[in-house]
Design goal:
about 300 residues; Tumour Suppressor Smad4; 2 domains; 8 helices; globular
Amino acid sequence: MHSRLAVVVNMSSGQGLSLSSPSSQASLQKLFAIHHLEAEFYWVDLEQLTEVLNEVCRRKFTTVVVGGGDGTLRTAASVLSQTSITLGILPLGTFNNFARTLGIPLILDEAVKVIAKDARTLVDVAEVNGYTFINNASVGIYVRAVRLREMLRRRLGLSKMPAMVYAILAVLWRFPRLDLQLASLPTGFQSVRVPFVFVGNNPYTSKPLPLVRENGLSQGCLSVLFTPGVGRKSLIMMVTKALLRPIQQDPAFEERYVQELIIRRAKRRLYVALDGEVVALRSPLVFRTRPQALQVIGAEFHS
């Protein structure tokens, strides 16, 4: 049975604004009460998130429920994976990939039911240069698209999805590539010229897009995907075909399973997308898996 919970809701997440009114907050509190869950609620914005999470950890809650999207949950995992505290999830983001992998329903009432059942499991997290991620990290095209998306949102007031579509098309037209050196792959040290390198926390399924992790989050490895020597037209064709067949079946894609990956570049700084949020890190980038570092409440893994 649950002891008292802390519930931390990021009001600036994709669906967090829907809980900005006192009546909607009261409705969420009522859901917890219906399921006999005693909870203390914290309504925060992104700037307050880490501070509040550290505060609830100091107050020795055994379970912290976090409401937000993948970026919010990445922050929560960064804090809670250093403790024995269990993470519960209210999916309030745009894509909610982490919640989907754990089988957590996207309807709040159903998500609270999962929390009430209190089925706990240990999952892996990953990190790069000390920064935690829970889904994936990447360098290259996607990073440029995210940076352009955020600029369009600031300057033109576009919503997230239309801005992202425009940004992806613009970046594909320019098609920048990176000259990188990869180490810790089974083939040894490798110099590549690539449009991107994708690093997943655990393997993604060999099914058509969208990519999912149907085998869960406890395999203790990173999935590394890249396309050396591929041009713009070829990459577009490959992604289009991946809507119909597993992306790994295309011979131009290289995939490796490793526990550590090092990426070096001549320039000292590399922009990296961590669960959809971009940070600037110094080269080399050192990616590592942290097996079973985080205890979560989930339903069943995606299948």
